């Protein structure tokens, strides 16, 4: 997730921008840049990597006063289009170099706009989607930046928060947002914009939260607000009471809770750009080059670790269900040492949030060496996995700071479903009707995830009754078994509770020996054809005095008489249910961790990215 800052006032802008960007570092980034408007025009400085590299780059100029100027915009970039590099770092400028733009979000129609702008003389330098905005503004600029912004917005599809400065208008910054956060701060003789409140707190606690498609025009002494049509708006500021540390977490107590709540937005970002509407809705994976050449594969082999492997297990069911292709989901550390049998017609799907997990990379390299083509699903643009794979599908979940993976998991699932369905189309195993109903169901998931989050108090209450349980088991069948694996991992890694997952049919083959009155068994029940089997399993553990909970659909009362507690999720297709059913389990793990007095963001003995064996 990128970070934006902007300043107009009486102080030198560059140090203000750098200090604001530092306050946004928690959001994660891979490059940074600033544009300062001084006497000799816009000065732009950018650097790949940590902010300190940018600071080192400009240190001399700051001393000499060569970067003087009291208006500027700054940016920390989390790469989505184009690898992390100086060129791809923001701000981006138009052909004249007079208009500078910083951007957070994804411009979905950037390819079309780029083509059109090139035909009108634009000369692109970066691989970013953002650069189209700068050229578009140039196209519409006839002496009034606000008018140009209003015209450009009409052409932009996707999500954005923008900070814009123009050499010919040295007294103002323009800011606008759609589906990405942006706040304006009102200081004394100075005004600022930022992606998040912490970057403003040093200067002001009076902030304006911009609404979707609302435009803020910041001068030294005032901020004016307009709607996207250019009509003036009155707006009330809010007073911020939080301290900086709380503000970084957006008011949430922990990053994990914040990231759990970010899932609806992350799922929307992952999905939206990949669904195209012409006459009907279709999946478009052209951006990653997923074409007919992948259709006559023999098998799909998935390799990953931890949570990403659990996504892979769901992938196995999804590929077999939709594309009718034999699929294996392997733990990467096992795969690399078991002398596997390769077939050049196998598709390798490698899943990794970080794109840097040592075992996962080793499995990928083995497959490559044996002539296999690799599809990567990752959250990290420019990661080793992204660079070495043949095709990359980004999850676009934004940086995940908490060690326990949440939004990375659900967005990995979204990517898997899209690839599985598209492969099904290419192999003619998914009909038009089935595709239409799956797309409709996928599109509902973000809102349905929001509904589950709105009922989080039920989970919190349940956790407050159960958090001291000695053993917690999760069980389910098919897709629900895979969600059980992930639920047990979440609980054990952040609450240190002994938790295990079982395929429910395996219960009587061993695990039931562990079940007694100290056990909580949570049954995932979303596979409609197997409700009666699950009901029997729940009765079996109840008979051994275990406490029981069920996660099922809102319209199912099948388990009401059997289980002690039933949690309901919105109705979706059984094959897509994991994206929803995992959310109550994430919340349960989070609340147990907090109730046990632990820090869910930093569990003991664990690292966010395991780059060694
Ligand atoms: O970055 P990766 O997705 O490759 O990481 C894989 C695992 O290390 C990771 O999912 C780990 O299991 C998390 N702590 C789970 O919450």
Which regions contain 5 or more consecutive residues with pLDDT less than 50? none
CATH superfamily of the largest domain: Aminohydrolase, N-terminal nucleophile (Ntn) domain
CATH class of the largest domain: Alpha Beta
E-strand count = 27
Give helix % range.
Answer: 25-40%
> How would you sum up the global shape?
globular
Compute the CA-based radius of gyration.
Answer: 25 Å
List the total number of helices.
18
Strand proportion: 15-25%
Number of self-contained structural domains: 3
**What is CATH's topology name of the largest domain?**
Glutamine Phosphoribosylpyrophosphate, subunit 1, domain 1
Largest β sheet strand count, sense and barrel closure: 8 strands, antiparallel
User: Which strand order do you get reading across the main beta sheet?
Assistant: 3-2-4-1-10-9-11-15
Distance between the termini: 29 Å
Average pLDDT value? 94
Structural class: alpha/beta
Structure explained in plain terms:
It contains 18 helices and 27 strands. With 613 residues, it is of the alpha/beta class. The chain folds into 3 domains: 3-247, Aminohydrolase, N-terminal nucleophile (Ntn) domain (Glutamine Phosphoribosylpyrophosphate, subunit 1, domain 1); 258-443, Rossmann fold (3-Layer(aba) Sandwich); 455-595, Glucose-6-phosphate isomerase like protein, domain 1 (Rossmann fold, 3-Layer(aba) Sandwich), CATH 3.40.50. α11 links the parallel β20 (346-352) and β21 (373-378). α15 packs across α18. The site of 5-amino-5-deoxy-1-O-phosphono-D-mannitol has 16 residues, from α9.
């Amino acid at each position: 997730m990128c970070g934006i800052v902007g300043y107009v006032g009486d102080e030198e802008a560059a140090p203000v921008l750098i200090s604001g960007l530092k306050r946004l570092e928690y959001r994660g980034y891979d490059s940074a840049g600033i544009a300062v408007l001084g006497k000799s025009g816009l000065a732009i400085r950018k650097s790949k990597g940590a902010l300190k590299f940018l600071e080192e780059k400009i240190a001399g100029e700051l001393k000499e006063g060569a970067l003087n100027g009291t208006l500027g915009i700054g940016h920390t970039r989390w790469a989505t289009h184009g690898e992390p590099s100086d060129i791809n770092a923001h701000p981006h400028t138009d052909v004249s170099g007079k208009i500078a733009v910083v951007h957070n979000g994804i411009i979905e129609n950037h390819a079309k706009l780029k083509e059109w702008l090139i035909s009108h003389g634009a000369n692109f330098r970066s691989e970013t989607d953002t650069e189209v905005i700068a050229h578009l503004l140039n196209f519409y600029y006839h002496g009034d930046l606000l008018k140009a912004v209003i015209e450009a917005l009409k052409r932009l599809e996707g999500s954005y928060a923008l900070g814009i400065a123009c050499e010919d208008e040295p007294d103002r910054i323009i800011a606008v947002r759609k589906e990405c956060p942006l706040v304006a701060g009102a200081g004394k003789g100075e005004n600022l914009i930022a992606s998040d409140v912490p970057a403003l707190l040093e200067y002001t606690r009076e902030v304006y939260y911009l609404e979707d498609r609302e435009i803020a025009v910041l001068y030294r002494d005032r901020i004016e607000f307009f709607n996207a049509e250019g009509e003036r708006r009155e707006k009330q500021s809010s007073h911020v009471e939080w301290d900086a540390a709380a503000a970084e977490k957006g008011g949430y107590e922990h990053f994990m809770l914040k990231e759990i709540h970010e899932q609806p937005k992350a799922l929307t970002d992952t999905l939206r750009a990949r669904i195209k509407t012409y006459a009907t809705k279709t999946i478009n994976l052209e951006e990653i080059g997923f074409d007919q050449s992948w259709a006559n594969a023999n098998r799909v082999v998935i390799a990953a670790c931890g949570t990403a492997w659990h996504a892979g297990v769901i992938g196995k069911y999804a590929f077999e269900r939709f594309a009718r292709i034999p699929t294996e989901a392997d733990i990467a550390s096992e795969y690399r040492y078991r002398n596997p049998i390769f077939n050049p017609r196998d598709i390798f799907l490698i899943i990794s949030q970080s794109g840097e997990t040592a075992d996962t990379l080793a499995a990928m390299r083995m497959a490559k060496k044996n002539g296999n083509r690799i599809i990567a699903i990752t959250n990290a643009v420019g990661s080793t996995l992204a660079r070495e794979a043949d095709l990359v599908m980004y999850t676009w979940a934004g940086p995940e700071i908490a060690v326990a993976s949440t939004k990375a998991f659900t967005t990995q699932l979204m990517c898997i479903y899209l690839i599985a369905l598209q492969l099904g189309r290419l192999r003619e195993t998914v009909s038009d009707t089935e595709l239409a109903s799956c797309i409709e169901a996928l599109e509902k998931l973000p809102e349905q995830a929001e509904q589950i989050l709105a009922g989080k108090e039920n989970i919190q209450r349940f956790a407050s009754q159960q958090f001291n349980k000695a053993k917690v088991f999760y069980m389910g069948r098919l897709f629900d078994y895979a969600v059980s694996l992930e639920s047990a991992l979440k609980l054990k890694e952040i609450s240190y509770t002994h938790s295990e997952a079982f395929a429910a049919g395996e219960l009587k083959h061993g695990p039931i020996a562990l079940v007694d009155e100290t056990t909580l068994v949570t049954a995932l029940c979303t596979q409609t054809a197997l409700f009666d089997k699950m009901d029997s399993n729940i009765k079996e553990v109840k008979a051994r005095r275990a406490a029981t909970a069920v996660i099922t659909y809102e319209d199912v009362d099948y388990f009401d008489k059997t289980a002690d507690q039933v949690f309901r999720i919105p109705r979706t297709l059984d094959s897509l249910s994991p994206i929803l059913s995992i959310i109550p389990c994430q919340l349960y793990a989070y609340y147990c961790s907090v109730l046990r007095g632990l820090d869910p963001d930093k569990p003991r003995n664990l690292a966010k990215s395991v780059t060694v064996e």
